[in-house]
Design goal:
It is built from eight helices and eight strands. The chain has helices spanning 23-32, 55-64, 82-88, 103-112, 159-172, 189-195, 204-207, 213-223; strands spanning 10-14, 37-43, 69-74, 92-96, 116-121, 139-143, 177-181, 199-202. With 229 residues, it is an alpha/beta fold. Helix 2 packs parallel to helix 3 (82-88) and helix 5 (159-172) packs parallel to helix 6 (189-195). The chain has an eight-stranded parallel beta barrel with strand order 1-2-3-4-5-6-7-8, surrounded by six helices. The chain binds D-xylitol-5-phosphate and zinc ion. D-xylitol-5-phosphate binds at residues 14, 16-17, 39, 41, 72, 145, 147-152, 181-184, 201-205.
Length: 229
């Protein structure tokens, strides 16, 4: 199915693939290329088999950029950590439905802290797990890889979930954004755009671009331009 995007496509630059010895500069390069958000992947070595960054990295990003900080919590028991990430300067906090037995309460907590509330689903999780929070969440993240690492291949079967969420949005009038994350590049982004996604997270395609992050963001933006006609 083919659903037209109703919101301006946004690019979220995921610092997971950035040069950590020059993180500030990498972020500023992405910003100069036109990135809309900075995406920060938090991994706990339990919910996903990798460890990444904590609130101090969010604080550091806040100091070098005024762009919204989109914090993706790939952690167990996120309620315990949400206030620390909000204090550190997160603009949006996204939790995984697979890690939230009390999802309604978790979304309320994020919203009370004045952050944009996002809910993510892994590739094997159906959209029905989001059904009761479609009117509560600000953003729904359809993972297009199994979370844990940058540089993995895009799983195209997840596009039917993007299309279903886009159709539900069109029918209901709710205004959640639909984000895709994992294996997003100039060659895969148009497929996700046509399915109905409007926030595109990319790490490798931006921060490992041979000509640098600025060129990486520009190439992605070019791929997301509407095709005339
Ligand atoms: C995956 C992370 C992604 C990751 C994307 O677990 O949530 O945000 O950084 O990396 P790429 O764009 O390289 O697939
Ligand atoms: Zn992510």
């Amino acid at each position: 199915m083919w659903t037209k995007p109703i919101m301006k496509p946004l690019i979220a630059a995921s610092i997971l693939s950035a040069d950590f010895t020059a993180l500030g500069e990498a972020i500023q390069q992405a910003e100069a290329g036109g990135a809309d958000w900075i995406h920060i992947d938090v991994m706990d070595g339990h919910f996903v088999p990798n460890l990444s960054m904590g609130p101090r990295v969010v604080e550091a990003c806040r100091r070098v950029s005024e762009l919204p900080l989109d914090v993706h919590l790939m952690i167990e028991d996120p309620d315990r950590w949400i206030p620390a990430y909000a204090d550190a300067g997160a603009s949006g906090l996204t939790v995984h439905v697979e890690a939230c037995p009390h999802l309604h309460r978790t979304i309320e907590l994020i919203t009370e802290l004045d952050c944009r509330a996002g809910v993510a689903i892994n590739p094997a999780t159906p959209t029905s797990h989001l059904a009761e929070v479609l009117d509560q969440a600000d953003l729904l993240l359809v993972m297009t890889v199994n979370p844990g690492y940058a540089g993995q291949s895009f799983i195209s079967t997840t596009m039917r979930k993007v299309a279903a969420l886009a159709a539900a949005r069109e029918q209901s009038g709710w205004e959640y954004r639909i984000q895709v994350d994992g294996g997003i590049s100039p060659s895969t982004a148009p497929t996700a755009l046509h399915a109905g996604a409007d926030v595109f997270v990319a790490a490798s395609a931006i921060f490992q671009h041979p000509e640098g992050p600025k060129a990486g963001v520009r190439a992605l933006r070019q791929a997301l331009r509407p095709v005339p006609g």
